[in-house]
Each structure stands twice: as C-alpha cells, then as structure tokens.
Amino acid sequence: MENFKDLESILLQQPWTSVCFAESTTLMVKAWFGDAGYALLLSDLSNMWYETADTEVIQQRSKELNKRLTAHVSSFLNHLNTLICPLLEGEKNSSTSFSCQLSSSMLTLHVKSELSGLPFYWDFHCLAVPLEMMSQHLVRPLMAMSLVLQCQARELASLLYQKDAEIEDYRESGAVLSRERLKTEPFKEESFLQTFQNQILPQACHLGEGQLFTSNLKELYIAVTREQARTTCKRHREASGDSETLEHPTSQDLAQKAVDLPAEEEKTVSQPVTAQSAQDTVAQSSQTQKAQLPIVKAKKKKAKGLFS
Q1: Is residue 4 a contact partner of residue 71, using CB atoms and an 8 Å limit?
Q2: N or C: which end of the chain has fewer CB within 10 A?
Q3: Around Cβ 154, how many Cβ atoms within 10 Å?
C-alpha cells in the first residue's frame, strides 16, 4: 500500500462530495482506491470517520463476508471502485444498496451488490478521526477558500467600478446606447451586499439536500489543498535543510481536474475599493496615454451608439 504520508496527501487533495446513502443519511465523502488498498473519509459536518485498508485487511474481510467468492485483492478493489466512484459523480446504481450505522466514535457502511453473478457484500469500518485531521481536511481549507473568494469579490468590485468610470467617460463624450435594454445602473457595493444578504444568502444557507460543493467549489478546494500541501512541504524542506524540489504525489485523475488559482485571486487586498479610487485610477491611466500620444486635431463626429 502507499506510504501513509503519501496516502494522506493524495486523500487531502480529493474533493468532498455529498452522497445520499439512504433516505435520511447524507454524508460528505472522500475516497481513494489504489492497486493494493483504499482510503475512505466521511463526515456529517458534526463528526468525521476514516478507514484505510491494505491487502491483508481486504483479504481477511472478503473471506468473512464473501465465502463463495475467490478473487485477487485487485479484483475486489476494482469492484469497490466501480461501486463508490459513480456515487461521487452523482450517479446511482439500482443494483447496489447502501446502509449506514453511525455513532460519534464509529461508522459502518454496508454495501450489497453482485460480482461475477454472485452476491457481493462489503463493510467499511470507519473510526472517528482526531481533531487535527478534521481541521486539515475541512476547517482550514474552507477558511482559505472563504478568503480567496473574498479577494475575488473585491477584485470584481474594483473591475465594476472601473467599467462604470469607462462608461461615464463614453457618455460625457456624447456616446449613446444603441439598445436601451442594455442600460445598467452604476455599481454600488453597499446596496449590492445588502441585496445579496437579504435574498441570496438565505437560499445558500439551506443545506437540506446536502449539495455543499458545486463543481467550481470542488476545483477551488483542490487548488487550495494543493497550495497548502506545497507550502507544508516547503516548510519541511527548509526545516530539514533539503534544497531538492519535491512534489506531493497525486493521482492521474486529480492532476487532470485540479486547477491552479490565478494570481489575481491570491492577492491580499488591504483596503476596500471605492468608486472614487477606481475613477482616479482610470483618470491617471487616461492622462498617461494622452501624454504618450501625439496631439492631433480631430474632426467633430456625430454621436453614435456605445455598443453599435
């Protein structure tokens, strides 16, 4: 099986997915299946449970649960992968049933399916994780994601103020809209945030269906955990005096799905953006461009549509 540290790094960079195992049991799930073992992490946002199983554990458990089946460990792992991974993609298999028994200290996930035309049973025995692991997989990444999204929102607000200043400059130059329906009001951050909190926020806080991570948030989670893992690895190298470049191991699928954050999203904005500051920025840019261009006396043209 993979080295424990390697396995921990791989699992950390897997995104969370909401899975409904029964009518009243919706859990957040991470899973990884390799050639000689698997790792499973589940949470109901109050507790978190974890299991890793190597070749020896899988062989012993398969003998206890599937006495009529004789197969290589890799066959059992491949079958478990085909049962669990579709759930993480939002798909359901009518020929497979799941049931959960959980407490604060342990969670048992029962699986019933078929393998080679014979009944196949499996039990995932997950124990409660230490507080540090819950913080590593859920708390710290979510806090980092919130900061990234806040920086992103400030950058977008700054861009809107600059767009408003640009449009106002066009209007003062005599430009008019060719289509009235395209007209927008100047962006006001305070009123926007107020409307967002009153209308959008209550909807976003309804987590009854368990859809906590959209596809974009999954990608952001992966990007954040990859950066945190890279930072931790760098600190360990500096502490040990190792100058070699090391990369945390990731699966092939993870490498394809993961996206790095653009530099603009990683910048820390220390002061709120205001309309006046954005207009001053645009004005300075306009003055600089004018200073660099030769002065040409242009003929007066008829006003035309801004977007025509």
Answers
A1: no
A2: C
A3: 17
